Amino acid sequence: xxxxxxxxxxxxxxxxxxxxxxxxxxxxxxxxxxxxxxxxxxxxxxxxxxxxxxxxxxxxxxxxxxxxxxxxxxxxxxxxxxxxxxxxxxxxxxxxxxxxxxxxxxxxxxxxxxxxxxxxxxxxxxxxxxxxxxxxxxxxxxxxxxxxxxxxxxxxxxxxxxxxxxxxxxxxxxxxxxxxxxxxxxxxxxxxxxxxxxxxxxxxxxxxxxxxxxxxxxxxxxxxxxxxxxxxxxxxxxxxxxxxxxxxxxxxxxxxxxxxxxxxxxxxxxxxxxxxxxxxxxxxxxxxxxxxxxxxxxxxxxxxxxxxxxxxxxxxxxxxxxxxxxxxxxxxxxxxxxxxxxxxxxxxxxxxxxxxxxxxxxxxxxxxxxxxxxxxxxxxxxxxxxxxxxxxxxxxxxxxxxxxxxxxxxxxxxxxxxxxxxxxxxxxxxxxxxxxxxxxxxxxxxxxxxxxxxxxxxxxxxxxxxxxxxxxxxxxxxxxxxxxxxxxxxxxxxxxxxxxxxxxxxxxxxxxxxxxxxxxxxxxxxxxxxxxxxxxxxxxxxxxxxxxxxxxxxxxxxxxxxxxxxxxxxxxxxxxxxxxxxxxxxxxxxxxxxxxxxxxxxxxxxxxxxxxxxxxxxxxxxxxxxxxxxxxxxxxxxxxxxxxxxxxxxxxxxxxxxxxxxxxxxxxxxxxxxxxxxxxxxxxxxxxxxxxxxxxxxxxxxxxxxxxxxxxxxxxxxxxxxxxxxxxxxxxxxxxxxxxxxxxxxxxxxxxxxxxxxxxxxxxxxxxxxxxxxxxxxxxxxxxxxxxxxxxxxxxxxxxxxxxxxxxxxxxxxxxxxxxxxxxxxxxxxxxxxxxxxxxxxxxxxxxxxxxxxxxxxxxxxxxx
Length: 865
Hints:
By secondary structure, the chain is an alpha/beta fold. The protein has six domains: 2-221, Rossmann fold (3-Layer(aba) Sandwich), CATH 3.40.50.300; 232-315, Elongation Factor Tu (Ef-tu), domain 3, CATH 2.40.30.10; 329-402, 2-Layer Sandwich (Alpha-Beta Plaits), CATH 3.30.70.870; 406-512 and 604-655, Ribosomal Protein S5, domain 2 (2-Layer Sandwich), CATH 3.30.230; 517-593, Alpha-Beta Plaits (2-Layer Sandwich), CATH 3.30.70; 673-849, Rossmann fold. It has 27 helices and 39 strands. It starts with a strand and ends with a helix.
């Protein structure tokens, strides 16, 4: 019989747990469906869940059907527990996304949808609460297709109508439909498995309407993977039962697992472990049945494993990558006076095994214990767990932003540790990684040069802890760290020697690197009355954020964009105040980006990397029978191994010219051309000379893919125009764009052609295709003006940033100006030594040019007359 693992996900209060109860009842698993508001839901087994009426922990229920056994995983809906929901996605065969028929697509719905797409989970949709006033099937379906990207189809339609809907989703299916007049079950299943089609059913879980149809649809259409014969399993959760027994929740993804089988793996810190699976438990709600053997596709709990962690792969299953969601607030844990800190840490670390994102830390310098949390509700839950499990009352101090650090360019770090009768040397190549990639660890060293055991030990030491950066001491991230050389001594090397050499090599590299401070950013969606739009736009600019062109929603306006979490944390209350309760702000964590006010944050942190004795960058060499500490600036010349990594020549020349220091980021600025002299003076006074040759915080990928200085010719002046920025700033073009955006583009290009023909400059207008799915981009010439359409996922300001860097580097004697009113973009181009012009200032300059052209024509006509 087929085994199907189905996750139930939803925005809080959409009716997710009620639907789970209805599915179990209609499937014959329950005699009576429970209710969240009555505190008797089958899957809300925790006392705190029953009291609060929300799901906090992912729960499992087994539902046998006629042709399949379904394992339901009910996940939390509250945003504070989104990480718990994300951990289940790696074991799902498909998901049911529950949408409220009255509320539609909400902020957390979008987050869940992004997670489902990231994990490539085929998804079904149940639109709940259709019995309530205001629920409109057509409107909800349209909103789903508009907000989440299309492919949502009403599977309650007659077969002929449904076939027509599905045919529009794929060319091959369309051809099948044209030839046969229908769409086969095989083609339908293929669309669902490939996430091209998302079946939708409508009903009321509370009144059991539409539930049977959903069950039948799951049984018919849910994809079932083909499992390999070799044993493999994925850990997706760690918990404890009422007796305190540690439970490792897994899905068997290959072969089978028998009780008493010896398993092995590596801890989250990289240390190997080997233990027996004492017992297997098949849970359904709060109860479980013992299993002698778990076949592929089974979701069960294992006892006897003390070192597993969520995301770990067992057997042939690889470990899962870094989660997409992580806390962005660090909170101090406040315990009663007299509490032993080591005891407090030990208890918190037990909870950290269940939720690794807590990231419990002891800050010895500050004398405080910190954890990382999603929000206030999670604080309350953590406090309850500490009280109920350990009898310890805790509270929390104010939350602070969790910053991270990375690097802008490759660098080699070297560490040597050789006190008397010890020896190890390690060379590491540090390279910037993709944003959000975490740390990627690898070795390029031959085992003929360094034994494989020592190499694995180096990589284990890199993985065993969070390494602080050198700007604020925040954890490093988004790097590829490669072991490129290493040396041991036949008699004197011990494991701890490589630990010392590895950490010193990493720190040595960071001390030389161009370091970037990263901060978390929100993606926001802000609906305000049209009269408040100006205030909203000004607020976002003040925060250092950015936004897309506003949209009109009747009497309201919609503003979407991104802004730093630090600036937007309390903004919802401000929106409610200035809109008199008529505004609505929803935010989701977008990820990390360069800090908008890095200088202030670095100064406030007061972190001195050279005084951090816990994380030294210096090396230890042996001289005259004793260990001698050699400062990090001098250590490279004394290494026993040659540096075999050649960096960019320009980079090496800079390193030889002067001792490098950690880079500092800059603040955003705003203003027009008339303020450039004063702004530049302030910029240089605060952050140092404006640099033309080196772009601060530029990744290697950006260096390799930097925009070319051509196809345009070299001329005395380059003018780059952010096309949509100008269109939506000039009233006449904005009005035209409201009717026909392409016409507005053509009008702007025509205006620029006249300007270019008069001034004989190289004029490049860039149109942003960031949100154009599948956009390939392109460059074309129109009447002397170069027109650039950026490719998918590339913003105009990112393109302009690359062009200004290349022009500043290659064309040092040329004048480069950029027309924009975007604050972040203005700062970037100023940092390249480029002049900028606000779109309104350029409008006046363009009008003056038109007058001069008219005067020349009039004078010419007068001479001819």
